[in-house]
């Protein structure tokens, strides 16, 4: 179904989208363009993944990242968590299916989901440090990042990581630089089983439907597409054999949404806060205007003098 | 009625024209201004991250990253410095029955009907409320601030804990700024107050008008021959 994507020409290709195609920009008010680019999506078919980690290697390679040599603690996850350099990570789960008596090896490629309603961007206080293109890609713009870690609090998937070296936030960019010139993400290109495919979101949904039908015919009655509505859908989607229980895939969020705590912080608190400060300042200003200064009178000074001189008042 | 002393070490009255009263020692004033400057810098650097329309305030600190870095360190200075103020001032800020009376006549306070108010010691009920609310606020801000101090403490707290902490920090910071506005406004509105924290002195008339019980005690201490009290103007 997906023939290998052709290698790019060696000619310089103008990017297909850029600054003019922003849907959202952190801590900024922008008017999105009238016309949205076709939404793209990466589809990760967990049932086809063999856990080879070619995607992890390709990600490091394309994005010029170097991961530290780690320690083997007896699990396949390597490294043990996402890091500022590991933007995608194979998470392995041994799942004992009590219904079938089978041991299932669930391998989920973790990384940024490119939410339609990104909590990271909502939380970000630095103008333009996080942007969302109209095609759905959420990208961190490092020269604008101040390293506060607010995106970590905003993200319902626990994705961004702050570098201990340059104190900036890092995560999967969906290979925005490759997609801009008509290529797919590096991980998709490297995947030997086409467990990772990339295209328009519509195409990916249609293709997922065929995969789900296939899985259902093989006895996975709850197979389904993970495109969580709580965050407006995502531009990285999973085909899961057990879509009724996403949490068994190394804790994939079941019905994720931006935390109400974050919504309160970035919503009501902001407006009520500035209003309260304004109201207090305005009260002071008006009170002074109406009542005038509270001055010490000469009678007060006289009284103090009499008291100090020892006369009874 | 009151049995305890309203007088702090170093407070004393000097005869003259006008009478002057020593209210704050040099050490207390330095302590106060370190606290004040820290609080203002914290409010500015914090507000810069609080709302996009105030992000330009990061310019005062040399950019967003520097504002983010410096804010919690100033927080540590504030906490330590406020601790100093706390131990200097807590005793005379203890709540008394007359404070309720004063507070009940807030309308007279605001309309300058000072003669209708009970005689006040070194601090009035408003000042005491600023003192205690700031004490509580700064402890909460320091505790929640540590939880969201990404660079050094993010490993020790779960993301959910950090979400709660950042919400608390933002809300309490707003309260802190409102209390600060009240504090500064009172100092400006009640003329003659700022000198207490700059030169350390107020006039006798100021003390008579606003803190008469304090002034009376200072004067009577002298007549009883205690060390603090009335001395001739130099
Ligand atoms: C007392 C110790 C304090 C500590 C340790 C502390 C720490 C922090 C930290 C770590 C942040 C996140 C941004 C950054 O990393 O710089 C922050 C944000 C903030 N702080 Fe503080 N802080 C303290 C006191 C204060 C005070 C006294 C105020 C206000 C008067 C204040 C107001 C704020 C505000 C408004 C924010 C932004 C919150 C938001 O983005 O919604 N902080 N603080
Ligand atoms: S998964 Fe997290 S980092 Fe990625 S877009 Fe959603 S909120 Fe942002």
**CATH class category of the largest domain in chain B:** Mainly Alpha
Helix content of chain A: 25-40%
Q: What small molecules does this complex bind?
A: protoporphyrin IX containing FE, iron/sulfur cluster
> What is the rounded Rg of chain B?
21 Å
Strands of chain A, total number: 11
Q: Helix amount of chain B, in percent?
A: 55-70%
Number of contiguous helices of chain A: 9
Number of helices of chain B: 10
What is the domain tally of chain B? 2
Percent in strands of chain B? under 5%
Largest sheet of chain B: 4 strands, mixed
User: How many domain regions of chain A?
Assistant: 2
CATH superfamily of the largest domain in chain B: Transmembrane di-heme cytochromes, Chain C
Average pLDDT of chain A works out at 95
CATH topology of the largest domain in chain A: Alpha-Beta Plaits
**What structural class results from the helix and strand content of chain B?**
mainly alpha
CA-to-CA gap between the ends of chain A?
102 Å
Subcellular location (chain A): Cell membrane
Cofactor (chain A): [4Fe-4S] cluster
Domain 4Fe-4S ferredoxin-type (chain A): 40-68, 103-135, 136-165
Binding site for [4Fe-4S] cluster 3 (chain A): 112, 115, 120, 155
Structure, explained:
Chain B: Its cofactor is heme. Chain B: It comes from Borborobacter arsenicus. Chain B: This is Formate dehydrogenase subunit gamma. The complex is a heterodimer of chains A (313) and B (234). Chain A has helices at 54-62, 119-123, 150-154, 176-179, 186-190, 201-217, 260-266, 268-291, 298-308; strands at residues 22-25, 40-45, 88-97, 102-111, 130-133, 138-140, 161-162, 169-170, 196-200, 224-226, 236-240. By secondary structure, chain A is an alpha+beta fold. Chain A has two domains: 19-261, Alpha-Beta Plaits (2-Layer Sandwich), CATH 3.30.70.20; 274-312, no CATH class. Chain B folds into two domains: 1-23 and 200-234, no CATH class; 26-190, Fumarate Reductase Cytochrome B subunit, CATH 1.20.950.20. Chain B is 62% helix and 5% strand. Chain B contains ten helices and four strands. Chain B has helices at residues 26-50, 64-89, 97-104, 106-110, 125-147, 150-153, 159-189, 194-198, 204-210, 212-223, and strands at 12-14, 20-22, 201-203, 230-231. In chain B, helix 1 (26-50) runs antiparallel to helix 2 (64-89) and helix 9 crosses helix 10. The radius of gyration of chain B is 21 Å and the shape is elongated. The mean pLDDT of chain B is 94. At the A-B interface, helix 3, helix 7, helix 8 and helix 9 of A face helix 1, helix 2, helix 7, helix 9 and helix 10 of B. The complex binds protoporphyrin IX containing FE and iron/sulfur cluster. Iron/sulfur cluster binds next to helix 2 of chain A.
């Amino acid at each position: 179904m997906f023939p290998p994507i052709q290698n790019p020409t060696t000619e310089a290709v103008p990017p297909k989208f850029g600054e003019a195609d922003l849907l959202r920009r952190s801590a900024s008010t922008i008017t999105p363009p009238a016309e949205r680019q076709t939404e793209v999506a990466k589809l990760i078919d967990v049932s086809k993944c063999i856990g080879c980690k070619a995607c992890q290697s390709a990600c490091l390679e394309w994005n010029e990242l170097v991961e530290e040599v780690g320690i083997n603690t007896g699990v396949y996850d390597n490294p043990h968590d996402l890091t500022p350099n590991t933007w995608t990570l194979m998470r392995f789960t041994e799942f004992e299916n009590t219904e079938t008596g089978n041991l299932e090896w669930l391998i989920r490629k973790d990384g940024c989901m490119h939410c339609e309603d990104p909590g990271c961007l909502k939380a970000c206080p630095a103008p333009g440090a996080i942007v969302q293109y109209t095609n759905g890609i959420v990208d961190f713009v490092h020269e604008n990042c101040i390293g506060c870690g607010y995106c970590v609090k905003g993200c319902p998937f626990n994705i961004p990581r702050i570098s201990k070296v340059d104190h900036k936030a890092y995560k999967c960019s969906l290979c925005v630089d490759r997609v801009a010139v008509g290529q797919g993400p590096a991980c998709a290109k490297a995947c030997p089983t086409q467990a990772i495919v990339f295209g328009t979101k519509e195409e990916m949904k249609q293709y997922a439907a065929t995969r789900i039908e296939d899985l259902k015919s093989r006895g996975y009655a709850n197979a389904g597409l993970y495109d969580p509505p709580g965050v407006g859908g995502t531009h990285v989607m999973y085909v899961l054999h057990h879509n009724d229980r996403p949490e068994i895939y190394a804790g994939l969020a079941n019905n994720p949404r931006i935390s109400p705590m974050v919504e309160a912080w970035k919503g009501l608190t902001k407006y009520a806060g500035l209003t309260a400060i304004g109201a207090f300042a305005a009260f002071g200003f008006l009170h002074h205007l109406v009542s005038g200064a509270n001055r010490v009178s000469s009678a007060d000074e006289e009284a103090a003098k009499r008291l100090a001189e020892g006369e009874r008042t | 009625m009151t049995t305890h002393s309203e007088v702090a070490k170093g407070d004393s009255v000097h005869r003259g024209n006008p009478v002057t009263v020593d209210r704050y020692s040099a050490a207390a004033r330095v302590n106060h201004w370190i606290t004040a400057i820290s609080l203002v810098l914290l409010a500015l650097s914090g507000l810069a991250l609080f709302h996009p329309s105030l992000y330009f305030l990061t310019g005062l600190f040399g950019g967003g990253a520097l504002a983010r870095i410096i804010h919690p360190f100033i927080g540590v200075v504030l906490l330590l410095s406020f601790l100093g103020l706390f131990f200097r001032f807590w005793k005379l800020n203890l709540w008394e029955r007359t404070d309720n009376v004063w507070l009940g006549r807030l309308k007279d306070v605001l309309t300058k009907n000072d003669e209708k108010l009970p005689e006040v010691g070194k601090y009035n009920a408003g000042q005491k409320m600023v003192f205690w609310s700031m004490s509580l606020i700064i402890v909460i801000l320091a505790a929640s601030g540590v939880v969201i101090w990404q660079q050094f403490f993010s490993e020790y707290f779960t993301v959910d804990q950090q979400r709660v902490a950042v919400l608390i920090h933002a809300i309490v910071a707003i309260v802190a700024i409102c209390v600060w506005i009240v504090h500064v406004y009172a100092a400006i509105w009640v003329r003659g107050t700022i000198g207490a924290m700059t030169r350390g002195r107020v006039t006798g008339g100021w003390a008579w008008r606003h803190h008469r019980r304090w002034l009376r005690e200072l004067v009577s201490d002298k007549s009883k021959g205690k060390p603090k009290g009335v001395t001739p103007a130099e």
